[in-house]
Amino acid sequence: MHLNWPVIATITLVLLGGAVIFLAQAVEPTRETAVEVLDSERFAR
Fold first, then answer.
1. Are the CB atoms for 11 and 18 separated by under 8 Å?
2. Nearest 10 degrees: CA dihedral of 4, 6, 8, 14?
3. What are the boundaries of each domain within the chain?
4. pTM for the structure as a whole
5. pLDDT tens digit sequence for 5-28
6. Which residues contact 40 (CB under 8 A, 6 or more apart)?
């Protein structure tokens, strides 16, 4: 059976990358949301 190794490798890397990002955010949530960043930029002016 011939497998398309580049496709399999790409999908595996994408899944691993997504899992790492998901776990990183779950362990240490982002400190600021987009709305808070926009508000802080507005106050800075």
1. no
2. -160
3. 5-44
4. 0.48
5. 999 999 999 999 999 988 887 776
6. 32
